[in-house]
Every structure is written in structure tokens, then in C-alpha cells.
Amino acid sequence: xxxxxxxxxxxxxxxxxxxxxxxxxxxxxxxxxxxxxxxxxxxxxxxxxxxxxxxxxxxxxxxxxxxxxxxxxxxxxxxxxxxxxxxxxxxxxxxxxxxxxxxxxxxxxxxxxxxxxxxxxxxxxxxxxxxxxxxxxxxxxxxxxxxxxxxxxxxxxxxxxxxxxxxxxxxxxxxxxxxxxxxxxxxxxxxxxxxxxxxxxxxxxxxxxxxxxxxxxxxxxxxxxxxxxxxxxxxxxxxxxxxxxxxxxxxxxxxxxxxxxxxxxxxxxxxxxxxxxx
Length: 278
Fold this sequence. Notes:
Oligomer: single chain
Structural class: alpha/beta
CATH topology of the largest domain: Rossmann fold
Shape: globular
CATH architecture of the largest domain: 3-Layer(aba) Sandwich
């Protein structure tokens, strides 16, 4: 996960810790150029505050913080270009302007999604799916089409994936999960009232649970074994369409599929070419 994205996600910074976080965001070159005592003086915080922030970011020390700032600042700036994710174009826009603004929205959405990925968690998710006896998908209504696309990709390489898109079937599928099953829950902000019940059902079984959601969701995550995020800049209701969140989820699911495919590239490619139906 991009270090800047991670700083924005953490909610338990104290006031003085947040002061130092803001300094990192606003003055990255100062952080790069200073030792810890100089940094404390310039940011008006104590040395112990700096190290508490570094600890909450799960970094080994100031040197690692500087390394991430150096390598990830440009990606952070690309993500922060001005785009209205809810209303990316106005009613008087030309066709060319709309297409240009949509291109910008997609570019920033994918950059944001990439920045949200914790590579260690992502690799564990791919490995878990690869070793699963059965993979079960539980998407909310707005995410069904992307889930179906993932299911189709997996089926075309000989991997069975079961998709449940109605609350009744999600309940019974969840309660019947066995050892070796992996459940993939997809929800933007947990606005489906039955989904928490599905999570309760799953946690009473030996199945592993992967949650894909926006960063706004914080109830379902406590019951998930692994949590991946998709772009969270849209309002749940007030928008033209779910342009950003759908593109973000599609990208994330495609990345999961691609890395799964890469685990046994020749085998899966051979199967797909042999059995492909146009």
C-alpha cells in the first residue's frame, strides 16, 4: 500500500502525531533531507512522536519512511489530481470533453486502487484462492457484473467458482461452507442489511473470508481474514453513476485473476486455448 494512502487511512493518530503526518504530506523533501532531530525541530513535534508515527505505519525506522516517500510520492501526486468522481462532467460538456474527463477519472481511479494495495495481503489472498477447495462469491447488487466477470475468467481456466447474488442463497451457502472453502465478499460500503448476517454465518464455519470493500467500510472487516480495498472517492448515492468504483473493482479482480493465472501459467493457458468457445 502506498505510504501516503496508509497515512490517510489510519484514524488513531493523536493530534501531535497528525501534525507530523501533515508535515510529511506537505513537505516530503524536508523529510528526505533531515535527520530525526532536525525533523522534530522543523515539524514542531518531539522525536518520540516521530517514532510513534513510524511505528503506527509499521515501518522499521526513519530510513524506511524516507525510502517510501522517495519511491511513492509521484504516484500519490497522480492520484490527487482534481477529479469530481461523482460528477466528472457537466451538462454543457462536449463529447470530446466528456471522453477526456472520463479518461482522467479512470487513470486516477486505477492509480488510487494500486496505491491501496497492501502487497503482502494481496499475495496471501492469491495464495489462499489458489489453494482453495471451493471459491464462493458473495457480491452486493451493484457489484454482481464484476463478480460474474471474475467467475467467467476463472471458469475459462478450469477453476470452479460459485456466485450467490441473492440474500436467501447467500445465507445457505455461507452456513454450509467447509474446511478449504474461501468466501469472497464484495461490498462498497455495507449498505445491504443482510450482509452482516452472512458474515456471521461464515465466521461460524471453518471457511476463510476475504473482504473487498471501500475504505469507508469498517463493520464487516472485523470478521474478515483478509481485506482488500477499492477506490473510495464516490458518494454512495449522489452521483451520475458508479464509474470509479466499478472500474476500481474490475481492476482489482482482474489483478487477482492475473496473479492466480500466473501461478500455473502454461497449464491454465493450455486449458483455456483448448476449451475456448467463441
